[in-house]
Design goal:
The protein is built from 3 helices and 8 strands, in the order βαββββαβββα. Helix 1 runs antiparallel to helix 2.
């Protein structure tokens, strides 16, 4: 059985506001939008970010739909690869995101972590240089050995 489409459903405080954020910051492409200005908690916005369809739904207590709580650990992080990390971070900050981890380079990838205004965590990556799988594997193997040794101390 082949999967034709994958959509991530995300509960947010405001689907319309979240859609605008993802359009501005991640160049999201707007899909179907269900906006009912006279009704609270029923808006829905569909947007594609980096090839992934996001269905943004308003928080709604009647349906037990709640967004993540700011400051509490998330069980899901979204990860993007962009052409210019610094420019993306500037757009994110200008539109209300918090920088959780400042840019750093690791294994040929410059990365940073943000929390968007809706409580979702995003790891943003920019490939600086390609690292072979074999190199990566050796690194992680050595890293885990070192971590095991520290546990024994």
């Amino acid at each position: 059985m082949a999967i034709d489409k994958l959509t991530l459903n995300m509960v947010v405080s405001s689907a319309m506001t979240a859609m605008e954020f993802y359009e501005k910051v991640f160049d999201g492409v707007r899909g179907d939008v269900f906006h009912f200005p006279d009704r609270m908690g029923v808006d829905e916005a569909n947007i594609m970010v980096g090839g992934l369809d996001l269905r943004l739904m308003d928080e709604n207590k009647d349906y037990d739909c709640y967004p993540p709580k700011k400051g509490e650990p998330d069980s899901i992080w979204l990860q993007l690869e962009v052409g210019n990390l610094d420019a993306t971070l500037e757009k994110a900050k200008a539109n209300g995101a918090d920088i959780i981890q400042e840019p750093a380079e690791f294994m040929g990838v410059k990365h940073a972590i943000i929390m968007d205004p809706f409580g979702y965590t995003w790891t943003i990556n920019q490939v600086i240089r390609e690292i072979s799988f074999e190199e990566q594997y050796r690194f992680y193997e050595q890293h885990h050995v070192e971590m095991d040794n520290k546990k024994e101390e």
